[in-house]
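Reviewer 2 asked us to include a model.

Predict the structure of this chain.
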Amino acid sequence: MKVLLVDNAVAHRLTLEQRLNAMGINGVDHADSAHEALKKITCAGNEFDLVIARLMMEPVDGISLLRELAHKGNPCRPPLAMIGNLDKTVNRALHALAKALNYPLVGCIDNPLHNTGLAHIIENLAVTRPAADAPAGDSAMESTRFSLQEVLTGLAQGQFEAWFQPKVTARTMNLCGVEALARWRHPEAGIISPDQFLPVLESSDQIHLLTDTIAHKTIAALSQFAVHGIDTTASFNLSLSDLEHYDLVDRLLELTSEYGVANRRITVEMTESAGIRNLATTLETLSRLRLHGFGLSLDHFGVGHSSIHNLNILPASELKIDPSYIADMHRNSIHRKLLKSFVDLGRHVGADVVAEGVESRQQAKYLTQIGCTTLQGYYIDEPMQAEQLILSYGCIAA
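Predicted model (structure tokens):
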């Protein structure tokens, strides 16, 4: 392993090198400033497995070094560990910064004289370092973007489908709902995920065409589910531009009437982090939806700058907690406290609380203990076509 130590205090560098040598790591190089470190890292032939840098350096500190290393024009991105006695809030902010920069930060060492801190960094290194030679696999199409005309042609030819991810009641783990997720069955590229077609539809104000397709398929599927003994609810996403169409409610009422589905079985999910462009029209549409018995979920609750404000003015029946709070809840005590506060808030305003992105039994157990109403995520089940859901849940739903 080749390690670069960045520290303007010679004694600190030598002590840390000795600790690394004692751990069997002998390929150690030095830099006494962030500027010198950048020169060594970008020099051809210098491929470091790890950079350990002191946070407090002059004239360029460790945080600025992180930013320079993460710069898009820099092809060398060795994993980085920081040395410094940080306040917990600053430590969290530093990790959030690295995540925002998409840079591998493997940890912070309060005291480099303790072997346990160094050992923890080395352990994290294998997990955090990106696999540059990993096979593309199923992600071969991830870099592909489709033109608006291609997407519109796919919609016109009926190539778009609704897949359904199950939700369960937290305390019983019985099926209580599904979320409809758009998929594009491309004749050449196979199944295409939403990130490949949503941006072009949203930027062209054509997203309502996809919304109509998914709404139709969702309500039709609910009718079929009932035939097979699946007495459940369903939700699908609405964009803010959808809510600016005055006839949205009327279109949904026509569909529920056509398929004999009770309005209360349909919940529309509104991404609450997005800014409302036309408040009057949006409030009118949402109020009419709730008046006719449809549910309203504030999706990604907790990440928008106006979460509480939206809850105050929008007629929400459900809060859907953003998955980011759940992903690291067992490492982040602040997220656990916020999750509890979201659940308490939902109870106080009479809204159900859905935890999205549940990936483990441990997460499910904690969310149930704090009173979360509904769970959704790959620990529960993966998105599937309507036919598969009928095979998996027919005649057993609560």
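The CA atoms of residues 162 and 182 lie 5 Å apart. Residues 128-144 have pLDDT under 50 and may be disordered. We have added this to the supplementary material.
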